[in-house]
Amino acid sequence: MTKETELEARLEQKERFEPPASFIEQANVSDPDIYEEFEENWPDCWERAAELLEWDETHDDVLVDDDEPFYEWFVGGRLNASYNCLDRHLADRGDELAIQWEGELGETREYTYAELHREVNEFAAALRELGVGEDDVVTMYMPMIPELPIAMLACSRIGAPHSVVFAGFSADALATRMNAAESEYLVTCDGYYRRGDALDHLSKANEGVDGVDHDTTTVVVDRLGDDEPHELDDTQRDYAELVESQSGADIDPVSRDAEDMLFLMYTSGTTGKPKGVKHTTGGYLSYVTWTARAVLDVKPDDTYWCAADIGWITGHSYIVYGPLALGTTSVMYEGTPDYPDKDRLWEIVDRYDVTQLYTAPTAIRAFMKWGSDYPAAHDLSSLRLLGTVGEPINPRAWKWYYKHIGDESCPVVDTWWQTETGGMMITTLPAIGDMKPGSAGPPLPGIDARVVDGAGEEVAPGKAGYVTVNRPWPGMLRTLYRNDERFLSEYWEAYSDPDADEWVYFPEDGAKIDDDGYITILGRVDDVINVSGHRLGTMEIESAIVGVEGVAEAAVVGGDHELKGEAVYAYVILEDGYDDDEAMRERIVAGVEESIGPIARPESVVFTPELPKTRSGKIMRRLLEDIANGEELGNTSTLRNPDVVSDIEAKVRGD
Length: 655
Ligand code: WTA
Known about the structure:
Elements: H1 3-13, H2 21-26, H3 34-40, H4 47-50, E1 61-64, E2 72-75, E3 78-79, H5 81-93, E4 97-102, E5 108-112, H6 113-129, E6 138-141, H7 147-157, E7 162-164, H8 171-180, E8 185-189, E9 191-194, E10 197-200, H9 202-210, E11 217-221, E12 236-238, H10 239-245, E13 256-257, E14 261-267, E15 275-280, H11 282-294, E16 303-306, H12 313-325, E17 329-333, H13 344-352, E18 356-359, H14 361-370, H15 373-376, E19 385-389, H16 395-405, E20 412-415, E21 449-452, E22 464-469, E23 479-480, H17 484-491, E24 509-513, E25 519-524, E26 528-531, E27 534-537, H18 538-546, E28 551-561, E29 565-574, H19 582-595, E30 604-607, H20 621-628, H21 643-653
Parallel strand pairs: 4-17, 6-7, 6-8, 7-14, 8-11, 11-12, 16-17, 16-18, 18-19, 19-20, 29-30
Antiparallel strand pairs: 1-2, 3-13, 4-5, 9-10, 14-15, 15-23, 21-22, 22-24, 24-25, 26-27, 28-29
Helix pairs in contact: 5-6, 5-7, 5-12, 6-7, 6-10, 8-9, 11-12, 14-16
The structure holds 5'-O-[(S)-ethoxy(hydroxy)phosphoryl]adenosine.
């Protein structure tokens, strides 16, 4: 064995990695006593998070729990999020970069804090002139262009909550979300670039607006320029003209109550209807700022890069609000990681001397497949910390990331959290805890996350159970927009005991815990699947498929996928008189793309005359998952129709 392969073998076997001494020396948080301090001093420990912000008025109470589980944080406090992300940095850091943006074609745009502040003020003034008032929900439907965070910050400046809809979602998905939020304003753009091609986005936005059941005003950013001209109708305004017309405007940041809504984010759940997760100004902003500082080690002089999309919660918390509240430089990249070549990310890290990289396991698995020559061709020595989020990371991908991107000298934080939690919940602190590939780590200081059985009792180490969070935290969702009932039933019913005043949050993830308190996340236990780190509801996909003419019934499950983590498997029953041919398959795929978007496209559509059902008529999803994964099937004798299983299996295997 050469020395190198021997070292390689050692790395493969190693299961614990200590934080590098060079990292510990300079870390924002490096004292292990923090866990105990938070424990002894809970909930007042969260003052530490609030103190990272500037408040117009300090809170009277850290936590009010008179009406559990409708918790309130930093009660009586007032602040403005855009002030905290912009104005307060102007004196010392006005000329430092806030956003370092790179387009897919290679063009760049840089915004200093002063420049970002200027444009946010101008757009805030424009929004006001269009009629946007405090508490009006403004929807954004935009790809990764600087105008997206600008619009978000402009909204937060005037106290208008935003609701960002991922640009990859369909027109239908946009309409559903605008209707649900009764949002009368939309900010979108004409198009963007993907793999070098200009994509039309405005037609999709227009089609979405057509499906909105009230009047709307749309602002359109011209991303594509003269190459791809577009037209505006009389409900639409040009972004640049609006900003220009407000040149030099100053808008006083509106002082918001800590509990006022900062934004809404629609996410997938068990039923077909997306859930409007409500986040607040004081608790959310404190929490993401605290976690960005403690876990991602963000410092003002860093060039920090979260390679997620702002259309998801990760981008809200860790591209926009957390990093900008800390006054750092946040990198934004518009395009795909393999355009023009598979080293695009490494080229960006090299060019801007990126200090932290935070990305998803699905991307890491793709990099690993493309091979280590791509990162090896670039100088990545500026990196100090690596992070992952969104789905479980397998130890092999973890080790590849640690070695080939981090050069074995960067801590890797595997951060578990959700749209609902606002920010990170379970992860090692990078200067304190040893890393164990595949395991997220212990709950963060102040977070009481446990692994329990169906009855809520903590399970023995090594046994599978469910994650629960047994104490509130500042970044938690406050409710589902205009649907307190669903908030209670989705998250609190399973494990709480209202009579005993015990309130337990259930995130719907499976997990195991080790002797040392490290938690390994095993994935969702509800009907939500995680495709390339994107959260999708199987019921949403099923209702899209059933909407296709000729489809009688559909069942969708997640099957294992080497790169995507999970992929969409659809089992479809057709109505009499329709053929299970390629044309039908294409119509089904198109139907899903139309009602949700290409991210939900089925990997496989299997036509079957029946679905496996229990005697009480419930579809046996577990069985369909096992079939998709090519696994041994357990006992099928409890089925009403056991014969159908072997038929489906044969079809999947292509017999
Ligand atoms: C999954 C994304 C394992 C989990 C921030 C969760 C993870 C869902 C991890 C939330 C991780 C997120 N390890 N699984 N480090 N992080 N998940 O709302 O199933 O888009 O419930 O938020 O992603 O997805 P969401």
